[in-house]
């Protein structure tokens, strides 16, 4: 099964040698879900899976890849709310808007100048963060506050250089804002991004990410994965973002992702996240000068190309941040609980 995570990983790091032409590769995913919030109203304000007590659509995602000599291209398009108005600044983000029919997730070309140095230009899944838009690449179906409030895509040009087989470096210039394929014409490529990738030993990888721009602000992000045993893996994501020109507006957070592969077809995983909105900073899903601790327990059961993801989630904030019931008019409780089940098919 070709996974979309492989497509997105091209944007993270690495040098590659394209020695020969390859056939056109087609991969993708489709997903549906059911979610129930115990307050009987949509409550936890993170990306996707927002419909209450409903069998609802995620998205269908189709990715194309082709290599010819030293050049390659990746194109990826999504249809459905998870890949459209719930995650991307597309039109007015209104699901009833007929012009909001699809979204290009990735569209970029790569040239491998040498077996160590490559150049990529276009619209790319961001190199920042641990989670991605495609549910096929995430263990949990719901997403973290760090993911929701961080960048999803970056448009620009970058160079990847493999310093050694254990160390890689990426530097690039990107459009002035996250998630837009076009830039403010007066500002252009005014955001600078960089990534240092480390694979010091087998089963351990880490990525230190940085981006700074006049509209995107400044974000420092660390992601890491530790394969501690044949069955047990630990993931880590920590980030701090400050709005442009204001170090007091933004967020900071950290998330841990322990998981165990019970067997080849069944696994259990936990996401434990702490997320804080800075003073006077209202984030998506969290009121200003508030913090939240979120625990998400998920299982992955694989049957052929299908992954079944039952999930239970409990979020607890420092101050009132959620609705106590469907009749609530304002945030009147500090905690929210939801359960969901998702069906994700990859091809």
Structure description:
The radius of gyration is 20 Å and the shape is globular. The longest helix is centred in the N-terminal third of the chain and has 6 residues, at 4-9. The chain is mainly beta. It has a 16-stranded antiparallel β-barrel. The protein has two helices and 16 strands. It has one domain: Porin, CATH 2.40.160. This is Beta-barrel porin-2, OmpL-like. bbp2. Residues 1-19 form the signal peptide. InterPro entries: BBP2, Porin_dom_sf.
Calculate the terminal CA-CA distance, rounded to whole Å.
6 Å
| Helical amount | under 10%
Count of helical segments? 2
Mean pLDDT: 88
Overall form: globular
Tell me about the biggest sheet? 16 strands, antiparallel, barrel
Keywords: Signal
Signal peptide: 1-19
Protein name: Beta-barrel porin-2, OmpL-like. bbp2
Organism: Flavobacterium palustre
